[in-house]
């Protein structure tokens, strides 16, 4: 694994941006791909995080604090060492219809891969809708970026509500976020799934998701799937 | 000034003692970009059952302090799929291949043993008597009589070396181990995941759908190590030590307790480069201690330690 | 807006479910400057044997990832010393006192049971059937018949509630648990340290003089939790859950699995303030979930979880 | 436990000085007393370290890297949080003959409590002999402090060798260091022992040492003992 030194952090409550200096290269990371990030001791599992942005061995992640590893990242002083490997998973661009434009629908930390997508493929982006619960999230984003935020606390609307106003058949949807959000999207949407992962490379069979074509692996076959292919009851 | 890491067991020469445990690396192919198989002693392939299995509903993995609880449920293509799709590709893996099978009835064991015996690339057969993740099934290795029956059946069907994979969390592992060896096992794998669970405090429900799963990782190391030690004290057969080996120190501990081969499960799942790191560490340790071959440290904890030699 | 943390079990009202496990806190006196005993549910005193024991030669403790392996060897003043020097001071400890005894023969159990019965400050007697640290002695709790015998003897001698402390690392804990209850135990403690070892790679020898010791700490939590869950599924007696409880989440997990009382061993040894921190955490959890009493969460993992209620 | 933030470190190979800012008070720490120091997760045990010096909630420890916790302290970035409690154990001053002067005989990290002793009770110190193997240790000490160092690599003498030249019956010996060193001291020496500890306060019985008066506890009855009282074979 590659050593990754925590260089910068910017936190607002349970969300934060974390920039790591890598002592090695990520090879041509694409949007939708993720890294497996590991702390030096606890937890012992490496866990998946989508690439928010990557440049010159500087990797930025957008992380929601939910448990042990994310908790540790939040409380680490600058200079703390982590380990990463990747990029793993398939680039979104390899799985979607390349002729379309897309509305990027993000919920919470699901915004991470969508940001990287819009950095790498700006011409394919029709609109960005990034949903969050609380206004506190604003302070993490620049004024320009804030235009894409849909904050429930302020507008009493979710991204799905707003999506209804802009959506039309010829535009694709590329979404990443919590399951309840994904379930409310049109059937043809591309949805980026999460699952508990062990290896991140397709060997351990931890990240199973049931589809109409049988059990698939989020890390090896995804993370992006057509919404209509997923057997949601299994999740 | 090289040290000799090779071991001869089961009439086979392993280039070094580090092998991949069954499961976490599947059939190994996806791991090839990350690990040069010519550097490791062997791979034990994912356990194969008679019928294809889609595995348990998610979540299939949850971690705890020092460990990982898995509940994969033996997702595999079944023996037919294995013979047709996997077996022909096995020669791509440049190391010794150990096949792993698990039957749910004596008839199933019989077919599985027969089919595995036929595959040329498979040099050794591991019989998985201890999978903790199958709904409604007790583990064979909890019971000496069942262990005996299964080993005897497989023994009849193959001339290849067979290894019984035992559960670490039984009252008396020596009893089960003796039974397996008396029934014809050429060696033992100790151990598999220990039955374990976590509860989601927010919902009040077990996190895993089958409630319990198998705990591996450094948390269980001292427990499984003690089982290897006790078994080796009582029996002189080759043992594959598996359970929480994360670094070269852990590997050496297992060797000193009596294991000839050292299997990595969680470690290689977390970090595909772990085997290489561990092999380097073992080598450096032996060099520092001026011990010319790995063989010399196997079981030394039973023989007065390192300084006696 | 208080939540009710009290539990009624064994006909006794405990002010809250957090108790101190036998051993790490000795007889409690040295802990008094660091912990206000009036804040905890109970203390289980260090196990007392018939004769005084000086304990095992050092090292008596070694840590591993997520755990601590101890090999104290029941250092204690013997029952006479206990009756004369410790018992008269017990009222200084402002909480419920559970006495713990361990005999090495049926005669010893008899004397120990009798003597403990006489001590007024001792409200409950725990019979330690599972100490992993005594040279040459098997653990009683590995064997259903021995468990039965011991419980029956002690049962005859006392009208106080008796609790059988079982080993977590047995093949079938439900069998042993049932036997203990049928023989007259009013409750069960699950569990004790799991047999475990470490080897010093520099010397090639086991670190502990008795080779193995008892592993406690968060490493074993998912294993012992599964045993509590299985036992509660099969039996309706009060269970004291002990094994790796380090924070309020661990405590709640044990309660949801079916434990009425929650014992801290390693946690309180590492940090004498742990009990207070954990009690506060449980309280805050119940408040957040709007659950008015701790009682309500005991065993919910068997009854559809929190949302059903 | 008290939060302890790593504020400063000065390392030379396997030895180092580490200064922590405490978010709470140690009550009147005395030389010979130790703190139990714990990392935020691994290892889960708190482990004993003698107080090297303490002033205004600034605690300095002198640590040798030998294993997991000490390894973690060495590799921690400034700002890392630890937890401590103490002071535990008996002050040397309470256990020794108060009328004498003492030669302080230290070996390796055993120098820590002796330094604190000489800070607090300078008039009781007759001489300081601090033994180390390698010259690299010099860079951790000021020129003045270096006068007390006896470095095997340089002088081919151990502290015990040098002690023979200065020792006379009426002067006491107060020693802390590795067991082989302690065993070579005069019978009447006071020796500060180490043992694997669990609680540090006398409850768990982990730190047993056998003496002519039975089994004693390093944390509760020590750490200082008369050399002649110890049954060394048991250790
Ligand atoms: C492909 C992929 C990309 C991801 N990208 C990001 C990202 O960019 N930013 C981000 O903040 N998170 C991302 N995640 C989720 C992230 O992996 C988890 O939040 C993380 O593993 C939690 O680790 P923890 O140790 O903090 O939590 P834990 O202590 O393990 O668990 C805390 C809680 O979170 C739940 N949980 C843990 N892991 C997952 C998971 N993988 N999926 C669903 N629920 C989980 C647990 O059930 C538990 O309730 C991604 C997940 C996947 C699969
Ligand atoms: C009263 C007291 C005061 C101490 N003061 C200092 C001090 O000021 N500076 C300092 O550097 N160290 C001191 N020590 C020793 C220190 O506690 C150990 O070095 C530390 O616990 C090692 O932790 P670890 O996790 O790094 O090593 P581990 O990973 O636990 O072990 C590494 C190696 O060290 C050995 N070891 C571990 N702990 C001890 C121990 N307590 N005694 C003897 N051998 C041990 C182990 O057997 C192993 O071989 C003191 C010990 C005691 C009892
Ligand atoms: C994801 C996963 C899948 C596993 N699948 C199998 C399996 O199919 N057959 C088997 O014998 N063991 C299986 N195991 C058990 C491992 O081979 C190993 O015995 C166990 O994990 C303990 O080793 P560790 O601590 O190194 O992980 C699996 C373990 C994991 C983590
Ligand atoms: C230092 C130490 C001493 C112990 N002594 C006893 C004992 O005398 N009697 C007993 O029943 N259990 C004893 N135990 C076991 C604990 O009571 C407890 O069951 C075990 O440590 C698991 O809990 P934990 O993970 O919270 O430590 C001891 C444990 C430790 C660490
Ligand atoms: S995480 Fe291992 S197969 Fe996907
Ligand atoms: S460390 Fe617990 S008694 Fe000394």
Structure description:
Chains B, C: This is Dihydroorotate dehydrogenase. The complex is a heterotetramer, with 2 copies of chain A (235 residues) and 2 copies of chain B (309 residues). Chain A has 235 residues and is of the alpha/beta class. Chain A is 20% helix and 35% strand. Chain A is built from 8 helices and 15 strands. In chain A, strands 4-3-7-1-2-6-5 form a 7-stranded antiparallel β-sheet. In chain A, strands 10-9-8-11-12-15 form a 6-stranded mixed β-sheet, with helices on both faces. In chain B, α3 packs parallel to α4 (173-182). The radius of gyration of chain B is 18 Å and the shape is globular. In chain B, strands 3-4-7-8-9-10-15-16 form an 8-stranded parallel beta barrel, surrounded by 6 helices. Chain B has helices at 78-86, 106-118, 144-157, 173-182, 221-234, 248-257, 266-270, 274-288, and strands at residues 7-9, 12-14, 18-20, 42-44, 61-64, 67-70, 96-101, 122-128, 162-166, 187-190, 194-197, 199-200, 205-206, 212-216, 239-242, 261-264. Chain B has 309 residues and is of the alpha/beta class. Chain B has one domain: TIM Barrel (Alpha-Beta Barrel). Chains B and C meet through β11, β13, α5 and α6 of B and β11, β13, α5 and α6 of C. One FE2/S2 (inorganic) cluster is lined by residues 197-200, 202-207, 217, 219-220 of chain A.
Sum up the overall morphology of chain A in one term.
Answer: globular
Beta-strand content of chain B: 15-25%
Please list the strands of the largest sheet of chain B in the order they lie side by side.
3-4-7-8-9-10-15-16
Give Rg of chain B in angstroms: 18 Å
Measure the end-to-end span of chain A. Answer: 30 Å
Instruction: Report the strand count of chain A.
Output: 15
Q: Which CATH C-level class of chain B is it? A: Alpha Beta
The secondary structure category of chain A is alpha/beta
CATH architecture of the largest domain in chain A: 3-Layer(aba) Sandwich
Counted by DSSP, the helix tally of chain A is 8
Ligand inventory: flavin-adenine dinucleotide, flavin mononucleotide, FE2/S2 (inorganic) cluster
Subcellular location (chains B, C): Cytoplasm
Pathway (chains B, C): Pyrimidine metabolism; UMP biosynthesis via de novo pathway
Main location (chains B, C): cytoplasm
Cofactor (chains B, C): FMN
């Amino acid at each position: 694994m590659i050593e990754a030194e925590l260089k910068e952090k910017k936190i607002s409550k349970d969300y934060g941006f974390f920039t790591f200096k890598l002592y090695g290269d990520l090879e041509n990371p694409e949007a939708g791909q993720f890294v497996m990030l590991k702390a030096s001791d606890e937890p012992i599992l490496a866990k998946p995080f989508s690439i928010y942005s990557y440049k010159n061995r500087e990797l930025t992640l957008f992380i929601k604090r939910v448990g042990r590893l994310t908790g540790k990242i939040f409380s680490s002083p600058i200079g703390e060492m982590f380990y990463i490997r990747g990029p793993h998973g398939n680039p979104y661009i390899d799985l979607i219809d390349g002729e379309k434009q897309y509305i990027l629908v993000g919920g919470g930390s699901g915004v991470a891969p969508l940001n990287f997508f819009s950095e790498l493929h700006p011409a394919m982006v029709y609109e960005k809708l990034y949903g969050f619960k609380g206004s506190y999230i604003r302070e993490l984003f620049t004024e320009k970026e804030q235009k894409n935020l849909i904050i429930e606390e302020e507008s009493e609307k979710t991204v799905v509500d707003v999506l209804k106003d802009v959506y039309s058949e010829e535009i694709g949807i590329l979404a990443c976020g919590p399951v309840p959000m994904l379930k409310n999207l049109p059937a043809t949407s591309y949805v980026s799934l999460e699952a508990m992962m062990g290896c991140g490379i397709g060997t351990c069979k931890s990240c199973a998701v049931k589809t109409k074509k049988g059990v698939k692996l989020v890390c090896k076959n995804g993370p992006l799937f057509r919404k209509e292919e997923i057997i949601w009851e299994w999740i | 000034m090289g040290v000799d890491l090779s071991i001869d067991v089961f009439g086979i020469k392993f280039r070094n003692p580090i092998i991949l445990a069954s499961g976490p690396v599947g059939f190994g192919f996806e791991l090839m970009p990350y690990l040069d198989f010519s550097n490791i002693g062997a791979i034990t392939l994912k356990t194969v059952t008679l019928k294809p299995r889609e595995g348990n509903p998610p979540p299939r993995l949850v971690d705890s302090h020092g460990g990982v609880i898995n509940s994969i449920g033996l997702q595999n293509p079944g023996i037919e799929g294995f013979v047709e799709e996997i077996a022909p590709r096995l020669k791509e893996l440049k190391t010794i291949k150990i096949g792993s099978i698990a039957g749910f009835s004596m008839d199933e064991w019989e077919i599985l043993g027969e089919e595995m015996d036929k595959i040329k690339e498979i040099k050794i057969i591991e019989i998985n008597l201890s999978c903790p993740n199958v709904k409604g099934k007790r583990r064979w290795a909890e019971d000496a009589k069942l262990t005996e029956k299964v080993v005897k059946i497989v023994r009849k069907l193959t001339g290849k070396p067979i290894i019984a994979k035992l559960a670490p969390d039984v009252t008396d592992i020596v009893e089960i181990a003796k039974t397996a060896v008396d029934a014809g096992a050429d060696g033992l794998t100790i151990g598999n995941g220990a039955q374990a669970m976590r509860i989601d405090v927010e919902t009040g429900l077990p996190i895993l759908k089958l409630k319990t799963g198998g705990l591996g990782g450094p948390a269980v190391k001292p427990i499984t190590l003690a089982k290897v030690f006790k078994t080796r004290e009582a029996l002189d057969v080759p043992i594959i030590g598996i359970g929480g080996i994360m670094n070269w120190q852990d590997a050496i501990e297992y060797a000193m307790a009596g294991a000839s081969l050292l299997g990595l499960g969680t470690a290689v799942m977390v970090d595909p480069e772990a085997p290489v790191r561990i092999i380097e560490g073992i080598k450096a340790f032996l060099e520092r201690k001026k011990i010319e071959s790995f063989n010399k440290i196997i079981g030394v904890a039973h023989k007065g330690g390192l300084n006696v030699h």
